[in-house]
Specification:
Elements (H helix, E strand, L loop, with lengths): L2 H25 L26 H31 L4 H12 L8 H31 L4 H13 L1 H23 L7
Organism: Arachidicoccus ginsenosidivorans
Protein name: DUF4168 domain-containing protein
Keywords: Signal
Length: about 190
């Protein structure tokens, strides 16, 4: 198992999940895809906290490793939910992005219905996953605000990205060197 690739992939998925989470948060469960509806403005971006200790960043990485199977399963369910609603993933993203950006668009009745159905299913899945993730994060001894703060800092702060990426590389080197050492003979 490539530890570095899995963690970097997981961090990218976390960023995608966060973007989807923002989409769902911004539209508050009443997402509709009609051109007549107004789209809420995106909140002003607050400065991101970056003064996390190395031990806190390590704990964040450890928690993410434990969250990865849940995130992968949730992503599969979300994809199935979207596709079963009669809309492609690409079309769903396109409509969602246009709504996030406040762009008005005219949709066919079919696309509008399919998008709304998919968005409702995605929100239900997200609520279930958020609850499960919160339980895992708290079981691991990290509070949700800190976890979310570090995730946001990873997305927005080159300094935090660099620190976490170095930790991932160091962890990978430890895994690789441990795997290369011969087993100790037993007596």
């Amino acid at each position: 198992m490539k530890y570095t690739m899995n963690l970097k992939l997981m961090m990218k998925k976390c960023a995608v999940a966060s973007a989807l989470g923002f989409f769902l948060y911004a539209f508050g469960g009443t997402t509709t895809a009609t051109a007549q509806n107004t789209v809420p403005q995106q909140p002003q971006q607050q400065p991101v906290k970056t003064d996390y200790s190395d031990s806190m960043l390590k704990a964040f990485l450890d928690v993410n490793i434990k969250l990865q199977p849940l995130q992968q399963t949730a992503q599969q369910h979300i994809v199935k939910s979207i596709e079963s609603s009669g809309i492609t993933i690409d079309r769903f993203r396109e409509i969602a992005q246009a709504q996030q950006e406040g762009k008005q668009q005219t949709l066919s009745a079919k696309d509008s219905t399919a998008f709304n159905k998919a968005a409702e299913q995605v929100m239900k899945e997200k609520e279930a996953v958020d609850s499960q993730m919160a339980n895992i994060i708290q079981k691991e001894g990290m509070d949700l605000q800190t976890f979310q703060g570090i995730a946001m800092a990873y997305q927005q702060s080159p300094e935090i990205q660099e620190k976490l990426n170095k930790m991932i590389s160091a962890k990978q080197q430890n895994v690789d060197s441990t795997a290369e050492q011969p087993a100790s003979p037993t007596k």
